[in-house]
Amino acid sequence: MSSTSSVDERRVRVLNDAPAGAGPVVYVMAREQRVCDNWALLYAAEQAKKRQAPLLVLFALGPMFNEGSRRHNDWMVVSLKEVEKNLAAKHIPFYIELGEWTDVIPAFAAAHHVGEVVFDFNPLQPVRAWRNAASAVLAMRTVEVDARNIIPCWQASDKAEFAAYTFRPKVHRQLSEFLTNFPPLSAASPPYNGPTSTHDWSVVAAYRNVSVEAPLPAWIAPGEAAAQAMLTQFLNERLAGYAARRNDPNEQALSNLSPYLRWGNISAQRVALAVEAVRGVPRDDKEAFFEELIVRRELSDNFVYYTKAYDTLEGAHQWAQTTLSEHDKDEREYTYTLEQFEQAKTHDELWNAMQVQMVQEGKMHGWCRMYWAKKILEWTASPQEAITIALTLNDRYQLDGRDSNGVVGVMWSIAGVHDRAWTERPVFGKIRYMNFNGAKRKFDVAAYIERYTDTNTLFDA
Predict the structure, then answer these.
(1) In Å, how far are 118, 126, 208, 213 from 108, measured between CA atoms?
(2) What whole-number distance in Å separates Cα of residue 369 and Cα of residue 433?
(3) What are the contacts of 86-91 at 24+ separation with CB within 8 A?
(4) What's the pLDDT at 186?
């Protein structure tokens, strides 16, 4: 691990190479909803200091939430309120503008005579399209900064990796270069005397359309401070023993950091530094956690970034497309609609329990999510229908949904992404199979089902 005093330029990708102007530098916050340990904000601050220009932060809120639910909207609002408070402590103005990026960002840049625009990196196609369209009409230098991955996505690999075993060596070769300490965020740029921010939080909270009214679950709180508290709890109570306990859905062994990582409330790099600094924890536990936090999580961004049709069967390996096509017309013993899946009305008590947990808690154990998605493949008319239903439900209810990890979790389970061919069987072809008896060998299925049997709190679509 090394230290750094500035943002590594390899984290930065130029979108519009027009000259930077003399006006303020604006960071368009989107994926990284935090002030601390945010490479995109740090880069914007450096550029502002270099040119002695003011630093501004803008959150451009579009009207659609792409299968999001009320819990996602509420999480975002709580996070942004904390962002505003933390930026105010640094005397950095924070603006929220409502509307499409292609309208809001150019208008904001013109109104504030902006000299440079900094976006945070997001590989999801809708966000890339909005960002690129906005950049194309801006008249000043525009960049994106990967503040999500420890190794910048385009630096880790220049192609979609076949599997974790091809990606892992690339990560290990570069990790020491990028797993650095963060420089402090200063408010050293000049104060801004232009138009001030006047957003109404009640209007912000009500602005976005949501697919379902699923509320925030009571077990977790959004935001930077809550993320740090969850990290501290994990380090103190669950990191030791992680390697042995993490695969049992009945164990309270996971970090519970995935919602915070998804919403950018905490940096994966900060988490890795904190885990590495813990003394007295076996190396096996740290390595097992790093495999999930770094290799698997960053592999997800790699897949989405380099795969055009990442959420369709076309995004799968050719072997998987072929085998699923060969078994597309196989008879299904059961078939269910989206509504039946959503209401946990299948014949499989274990699957129903997993769906109940996801709806009630906004989170599902990683092993359960694999079983859950594979059964959707088994009980739908086609692989593409299975992918669509699994992603729809994942993105409606999972607190970490609507992001690369959810996409890859579904595509691994249903379409063999990052996996290999297995024994051929009906419906699945050579896609890896999982069944109820295998679950019983892995953990106490009866105890899990008993815990998640109440369907009274499931929500109508």
Answers:
(1) 13, 21, 20, 32
(2) 13
(3) 86/34, 86/35, 86/36, 86/224, 87/35, 87/57, 90/35, 90/185, 90/186, 90/187, 91/187, 91/191
(4) 81
- In this predicted model, what pLDDT tens digit does every residue of 382-398 receive, in sequence order? 999 999 999 999 999 99
pLDDT for 158:
98
Q: What is the residue type of 240?
A: A
Q: Does domain 149-183+223-306 have CATH number 3.30.70.1060?
A: no
> Would the pTM of this model clear 0.90, i.e. be above it?
yes
Q: Which two tokens stand for residue 278?
A: 């813990």
Round to whole Å and give the CA distance between 23 and 26. Answer: 9
Residue 317 tokens, joined? 């390996």
All structural domains of the chain with their residue ranges: 10-147, 149-183+223-306, 313-451
Largest Cα–Cα distance in the chain? Answer: 68
Q: Amino acid identity of 44? A: A
Per the CB < 8 A criterion, the answer to whether 94 and 88 are in contact is yes
The strand pair at 141-145 and 116-120 is best described as parallel
Q: What pLDDT does 5 receive?
A: 60
Q: Which fold has domain 10-147?
A: Rossmann fold (3.40.50)
Those residues whose C-beta lies under 8 Å from the C-beta of residue 165, and which sit 6 or more positions away, are none
* Structural contact between residues 130 and 91, judged by C-beta atoms closer than 8 angstroms: no
Integer CA distances (angstroms), 230 to 190, 332, 402, in order: 36, 43, 22
Q: How far apart are the C-alpha atoms of 306 and 23, rounded to whole Å?
A: 34
- Residue 62, token pair as written in the block: 């579009």
φ/ψ bin of 57: left (φ > 0), alpha (ψ from -120 to 50), beta (otherwise): beta
Which regions in the chain score pLDDT beneath 50?
2, 460-461
At the top level of CATH, which class does the domain 313-451 belong to? Answer: mainly alpha
